[in-house]
Structures are given as C-alpha cells and as structure tokens.
Amino acid sequence: MQNVYKEAVLTFAGVTGGMITSLFGGCDAALITLLIFMGVDYLTGLVVSAVFKKSKKTENGALESKAGWIGLCKKGITMLIILVGYRLDIVIGSNFIRDAVVIAFIMNETISIIENAGLMGIPVPKAITKAIEILNKKDDEN
User: Fold this and answer.
1) Contacts (Cβ under 8 Å, ≥6 apart) of 9
2) What integer pLDDT is reported at residue 31 of this predicted model?
3) In a domain, 4, yes or no
4) I need a labelling partner for 54 at 20 to 30 A (CA). Which of 42, 62, 95, 130 fits?
C-alpha cells in the first residue's frame, strides 16, 4: 500500500515539474545556471547577514526574516518575467527574448554574488569579472 502512495506522489511531482518546465521553455543550461546562481546568491546573502552582520538590506546588517522574504519574492518575480519573455517569444515567433532575459538575470545574480563575496572579504578572481563582460556583450547582442 505504501508503494502505491509513493508512486502516486512521484508521478504527481513528475507531471507538475514537467508542466512547470514547459511553461518556461524547457530546462536548458541557461535556466539551470540562473536557478543555481539564485540559490548561491540567496545563501551568500544569508551568510553575509547571519555570520558577518554586514547586510546592506537591513539597518543593523544582521539577519532579518523580512529581508529574506523580500529576496525570495524578487526571485519569484524574476521567474515570472522569464515566463513572460518566453510567452512573448511564442507569440512573436522568435526564440531570443527568453534567452536575453535569462542572460540579463544571470548577470544580475553574478554581480550580487560578487558583492556578497566582497562584503565577506573574499577576493573575486578576474575570470569572473571577464565572464560578466562576456555576458554583457551577449545580452547586448540579443
């Protein structure tokens, strides 16, 4: 009996995940990169505020649930903007709006991660700053 419930839950999760993925135009390398960077940014933001107490999102620099919630809401809206970009691609018959939006948000998340690293006193390798320049050029081309 327990196997039936497990299979039902896994089937539901698979169907739901597939539907959500198709809404965003598939799960390609760019979208996966963005999702990973969003997670890294959120975690580094937590470390900056909880451990280093240097957050620029709160008055005292410490961890606050409201600031964390606002950050999660912003990331949710980011995903909705990607959804809008993909749907515009479908209507127009193109395939670059979604990619341009995703690349722009990848740049934004990368910059935020670098800022968090700076607040922790971690030096940023030149390879990362070069990658931001490349992404900037790619975004301008789109």
Assistant:
1) none
2) 96
3) no
4) 130
